[in-house]
Specification:
Helices cover about 35% and strands about 10% of the residues. Strands 1-2-3 form a 3-stranded antiparallel β-sheet, with no helix packed on it. By secondary structure, the protein is of the alpha+beta class. The protein is built from 1 helix and 3 strands, in the order H-E-E-E.
Length: about 80
């Protein structure tokens, strides 16, 4: 069972490598951070200014981790719904 879980984790890692490679290349060429505050992509949405537990991975993936022990869900703010 453990070996199967580890194989799945490795497969997921390789699935993300092209996206991550592209983001790090963009960071090298243009100076954009890989992990970005939401306000960088939604500057007109003032709700994004104080969000500390959400960020963008590049400009396409919204990340909102569940970070408290014992939690199984969390609230997510979706920016730009009116933009």
């Amino acid at each position: 069972k453990t070996l199967r879980i580890l194989r799945d984790i490795v497969r997921q890692r390789y699935t993300w490598l092209p996206q991550l490679y592209s983001l790090f290349r963009e960071a090298e060429l243009h100076g954009w951070p890989v992990m970005r505050s939401l306000w960088m992509h939604y500057p007109q949405d003032t709700e994004t200014f104080g969000l500390e537990k959400q960020w963008m991975l590049g400009e396409d993936l919204l990340v909102t981790p569940v970070i408290e022990q014992g939690e199984t869900s969390t609230n997510v703010y979706f920016p730009g719904k009116d933009n």
